[in-house]
Design a protein that fits this description.
The protein has one domain (about 5-190). The N and C termini lie far apart (about 40 Å). The relative contact order is 0.16. It is globular and about 40 Å long. About 40% of the residues lie in helices and about 15% in strands. A five-stranded mixed sheet has the order 3-2-1-4-5. It has a two-stranded parallel ribbon with strand order 6-7. It contains ten helices and seven strands. The longest helix has 14 residues, at about 80-95. It is an alpha/beta fold.
């Protein structure tokens, strides 16, 4: 997969990101696979979108390999973890290339020690990094839509910043080390936490 240089200049807002994704057949197929399951508020999130943007802004001609593809949805009527595994299996049937990882955001507050989240987007407000709180989905209108409750500024300006809403001691630093972000994308700027 190669990216046009003009994309580096134009990638500064959600509509530009939507347009870039529309130009990637594989990404559209992945988004359509998730949409075909009709998950409530179903979308592909986190590293799948974040890494795509960071790769473009670094001028990489190939996508950085993904360990998994995060799918989020919001279903307060079915909090069974087994349902997530069934979704993973269905997605593997549709697109076997990826290690799919579906998570119902209606139950993630339990793991995180928060009050219940109101939606998938609300749950994203508590993710460890601002640049990771991004998702894309194939809408009923058959267009790509972006969900970024913490905005796109940090993602599009290569800023690696801890989400002040997260409040999980050491998680941010651990993720930087274990995921090797600063090695993989050396233009990233680590932003100190504001106290």
């Amino acid at each position: 997969m190669s990216y046009e240089m003009s994309a580096l200049i134009e990638l500064r807002e959600a509509s530009s990101l939507e347009a870039l994704i529309l130009g990637q057949r594989e990404m559209i197929a992945d988004l359509q696979a998730v949409a075909s399951l009709q998950l409530p508020q179903g979308r592909i999130a986190a590293g799948y979108i974040r890494n795509f943007v960071w790769d473009i802004l670094h001028g990489y001609s190939e996508r950085t390999p993904l360990l998994d593809v995060d799918v989020i949805y919001y279903d307060p009527n079915c909090l069974d973890e087994e349902a997530e595994k069934e979704i993973d299996a269905r997605l593997r049937e549709l697109v076997p290339k990826w290690n799919w990882s579906a998570k119902n955001q209606a139950r993630m507050h339990l793991r995180n020690g928060h009050e219940p989240y109101a939606s998938a987007e609300d749950a994203m407000r508590y993710w460890p990094e601002t640049a990771t709180a991004i998702a894309a989905f194939w809408s009923k209108e058959e267009i790509v839509q972006i969900s970024a409750p913490l905005g796109l500024e940090d993602l599009l300006h290569l800023r690696l910043r801890e989400n002040p809403n997260c409040n999980s001691s050491g998680t941010f630093e651990q993720r930087i080390q274990s995921k090797r972000w600063l090695e993989l994308w050396p233009k990233l700027q680590l932003v100190s936490r504001e106290i």
